[in-house]
Structure formats: structure tokens, C-alpha cells
């Protein structure tokens, strides 16, 4: 006949006045680190408890550092990331139209039409339409204000070339399902 004995879940608490050894301190430090890894302690509390455990001279001091750590672990908080749903083809075409309608003579009207027609239902189209509208408002402002100076007169053709090239790049980015931001744009519409 064999008799099995069960071990206690935690070591018995020593007399509070007894001095602790380095081994006792190391076991307490490991228990504190395990509690931190389980998510039961934050960094500041772990540092405080480690300081208490390493400077403990008596069993009472050491017990004060680890007394409430024994017990079930709380669930850890894990961050969640928002995963964007893939953009459907209709939204991509609408967003590309917001960029490319400006090349058909609908200078600021094209992005505005796309913003008003599909902006409430499709956030992807809304983002691209607002970006295109802001860019063309910036081009309009530059066209009106740059001729005041000689340097501005020299920069005006560069602005017009960018007003032709960048909507094509934005339209291609929209068709590929990517975000696009026009450089050097004053974002008046949000």
C-alpha cells in the first residue's frame, strides 16, 4: 500500500522576524517577474516590488513584496489592430474618377461631384475626392497669386504641369486600392 502526500501550493511563511537568504530573494524576484509576464503587474509596480524584494532583510519584508501575487492570473490585455476591408472595384473606379475628371475640363467640379454623389456611402471615394479637391483649390490659388511676382511667373508652368501629372498618379493609386496624398497641398476641405 502506497501513501501519497501532497505538497502545499506555496511554501510556508517563515517567522516574520527571521532574516532571509539570497535564495529567498531570488525566488521572490522570479515570482514578481512571472507576475509581470502574466500581465498582473505593470512596469512601475514591478520595479517597486523588485526594489522591495532585493532590499528585504526579514521574511516580513519579503512577504510584503509578494503577498498578493499568489493566485490566479488575470487575462492579459492584447492590442487589436483595425484591419481595413479590401476596397471593392466600384469604389476604386469612383475614387479614380475623382482624380481624373479634372483632366476632362471639370477642374474642381469633378472631385466635388464625386464627393457629393458617393462621399457619404463610400469613405474610400470620399478620401480621394477630398484630396483631389484640395489639390485643385491649391492650384487655383497658386494660379491667381503666383503671377504677382517674377519668381511666381517662372513657377506657374511647373504648377500647371503638376496639375496634369499628379491627378494621373492619384488616379492610378486609387485604381490600385492605395491611398494618395498630393504634395504641397493646402487642405481646406476635410
Any chance you could write out the topology, listing elements then pairs?
Blueprint: H1 22-37, H2 43-54, H3 59-66, H4 89-100, H5 109-118, H6 123-145, H7 150-175
Short description:
The protein has 190 residues and is mainly alpha-helical. The chain is built from 7 helices and no strands. The longest helix is centred in the last third of the chain and has 26 residues, at 150-175.
Protein model, in words:
The protein has helices at residues 22-37, 43-54, 59-66, 89-100, 109-118, 123-145, 150-175. By secondary structure, it is an all-alpha fold. α5 runs antiparallel to α6 and α6 (123-145) packs antiparallel against α7 (150-175). The longest helix has 26 residues, at 150-175. It is a multi-pass membrane protein.
Rg calculated over all Cα atoms: 33 Å
> Number of helical segments?
7
Percentage of residues in helical conformation: 55-70%
Main sheet summary: none
Q: Which series of helices and strands comes N to C?
A: HHHHHHH
Low-pLDDT ranges? 5-10
Q: How many domains? A: 2
Number of strands: 0
Main location: membrane
Protein name: DUF1707 domain-containing protein
Subcellular location: Membrane
Organism: Thermobispora bispora (strain ATCC 19993 / DSM 43833 / CBS 139.67 / JCM 10125 / KCTC 9307 / NBRC 14880 / R51)
Amino acid at each position: 500500500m502506497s501513501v501519497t502526500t501532497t505538497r502545499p501550493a506555496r511554501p510556508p511563511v517563515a517567522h516574520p522576524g527571521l532574516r532571509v537568504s539570497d535564495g529567498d530573494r531570488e525566488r521572490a524576484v522570479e515570482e514578481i517577474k512571472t507576475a509581470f509576464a502574466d500581465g498582473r503587474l505593470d512596469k512601475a509596480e514591478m520595479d517597486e516590488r523588485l526594489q522591495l524584494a532585493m532590499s528585504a532583510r526579514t521574511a516580513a519584508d519579503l512577504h510584503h513584496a509578494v503577498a498578493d501575487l499568489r493566485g490566479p492570473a488575470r487575462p492579459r490585455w492584447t492590442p487589436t489592430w483595425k484591419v481595413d476591408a479590401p476596397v471593392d472595384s466600384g469604389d476604386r473606379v469612383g475614387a479614380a474618377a475623382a482624380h481624373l475628371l479634372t483632366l476632362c475640363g471639370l477642374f474642381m467640379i469633378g472631385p466635388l461631384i464625386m464627393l457629393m454623389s458617393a462621399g457619404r456611402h463610400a469613405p474610400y471615394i470620399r478620401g480621394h475626392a477630398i484630396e483631389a479637391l484640395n489639390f485643385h483649390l491649391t492650384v487655383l490659388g497658386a494660379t491667381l497669386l503666383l503671377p504677382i511676382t517674377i519668381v511666381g511667373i517662372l513657377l506657374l508652368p511647373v504648377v500647371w504641369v503638376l496639375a496634369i501629372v499628379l491627378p494621373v498618379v492619384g488616379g492610378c493609386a486609387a485604381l490600385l486600392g492605395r491611398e494618395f496624398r498630393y504634395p504641397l497641398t493646402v487642405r481646406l476641405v476635410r
